[in-house]
Amino acid sequence: MQHQYLDILVLNETRLDETISNSEISIDKYTLVRNDRTRHGGGVAMYIRNSINFNLRNDLHDEALEFLCVILDKIEFLGIENNIIGDLNCNMSASIADNNTKHLLELSESYQYTQLIKEPTRVTNSSSTLIDLFLTNEPNNFTSAGVIVL
To answer: Which InterPro entries does this one have (predicted)?
Structure first.
């Protein structure tokens, strides 16, 4: 991230737990927000540039769901920007969509959301799927979105 100018980095499948402290994975000039999964795998995290004011919505926390909700203080936007980011387990690259994916596509179209990730996010020897999504109603506010392979 030192060579890229990123305001926010969103991570899925972090596999972090209470044995890994924030200081061990901190990035200079960023605030770490995370929601660890209590069982194998999973977890979500966000690194938010320190110059961006935000509020974490802990009141929306649900033990059964794995997500983070932050409200960004971006007064320069005239409209209300909404972003849905994460592993939604709806394959947006499937030639034949299942019911959940169809519903998500219908909702996205109804609310004029654009899916910014264009390449598969889960690749195996026998398949590839696009299930890690970045949906926004303001696609022109983003210069890039993609997958970083670690």
So the answer is: Endo/exonu/phosph_ase_sf
Distance CA 38, CA 15 (A): 9
Q: With beta carbons less than 8 A apart as the criterion, state whether 130 and 91 touch.
A: yes
Sheet of 30-35: strand order equals: 8-12, 44-49, 30-35
**149 to 11, 12, 54, 119, 121: CA distances (angstroms):** 11, 12, 27, 12, 9
Let me know the angle formed at the C-alpha of 68 by 92 and 58, rounded to the nearest 5 degrees.
Answer: 150
Write down the domain spans for the chain.
Answer: 8-141
Q: Nearest 5 degrees, angle CA 98-CA 102-CA 105?
A: 140
pTM of the model as a whole: 0.61
Tokens 């019911």 correspond to 99
What per-residue string of b and e applies to 114-143 under the rule 16 or more CB within 10 Å gives b? Answer: ebbbeebbbeeeeeebbbbbbbbbeeeeee
The C-alpha atoms of residue 114 and residue 135 are separated, in whole angstroms, by: 5
pLDDT digits (tens, 9 = 90+) for 48-92: 989 888 998 888 777 766 788 888 775 454 467 888 888 888 899
Residue whose pair of structure tokens reads 């320190």 in the numeric block: 50
